[in-house]
Specification:
Layout lengths: L28 H26 L8 H31 L2 H19 L2 H24 L9 H16 L3 H10 L3 H32 L8 H8 L10 H6 L19 H8 L2 H7 L1
The protein binds fe (ii) ion (2 copies).
One fe (ii) ion binds next to helix 4.
Amino acid sequence: MSSHVMPERRDLQFTLPTERISDWNNGNVQLSQFMNTLSLFFPEGERMFIDAVRNCRDQVSDPELKKAMTAFIGQEAMHGREHEEYNEALFNAVPSTRAMERGVGKLLGVIKKRAPVPLRLSATIALEHFTAIMADGLLKEQRLLEGADPQFAAIWNWHALEETEHKAVAFDVWDQVMGRGPAAYALRAGGMIFATVVFWSLVFPFFLKVLYDEGKLLDKGWGYFFRCTLGEYGYLRKLVLPWAEYFRPNFHPWDQDNSAYLAQIPELAARYTAPAAQKAAA
Ligand SMILES: [Fe+2]
Ligand SMILES: [Fe+2]
């Protein structure tokens, strides 16, 4: 295994104040609903990642990587569980979001049914790179969570930390299964283009529809949203270069070593470990 970080499955649980779903981030509807829109993609997306990695289990012999794959699957399953609850709060506030999540599930279902395993793995490592750079952006620019409700901030930080911790697992599986030849490179790069186009062409219309359906499309707060995403804090703007890094033929997710953030995990885990998991550990 070329990674130096071994992920660990943790059973963390958050008690989100669901009545704050629309404005939990600094009272700003646009930023809150933008992040909520991203959350709509997680449970179904994570199920696809789990499947793609699990499908390759027999092709991986490295015991360390096998162990990392098990932890990866465990982490994504926990993320899915917590974001399902998160999304339930969004469904209650904006009922049309349920159909959006279902649409994501249908699309991924078609990919699962029709696309061969290498293509699904290629889409998985592309989206894992996306989640890794989005996680890094959030951990680096904590002003994005300034004034956020603490439980919502905690779930986002936890997810970002674990996405960082396991960011190379699917990629290492890819390396073992597909190797580093020109065909593997073409499929990996093509997978990223495909994943980028599909992902963002769904995120933005969904985001605007959420605001529209809630009757908040023209609400105040766009200035702060643009400061966070494109202006001073520049969350989306700053994704472009790390995204492009992926196209280097010898790219590896740990080329950018941001493992220092992982030191934040024990404190978060101590605070949010699920009661049942605490009992089992005692
Ligand atoms: Fe995840
Ligand atoms: Fe992930």
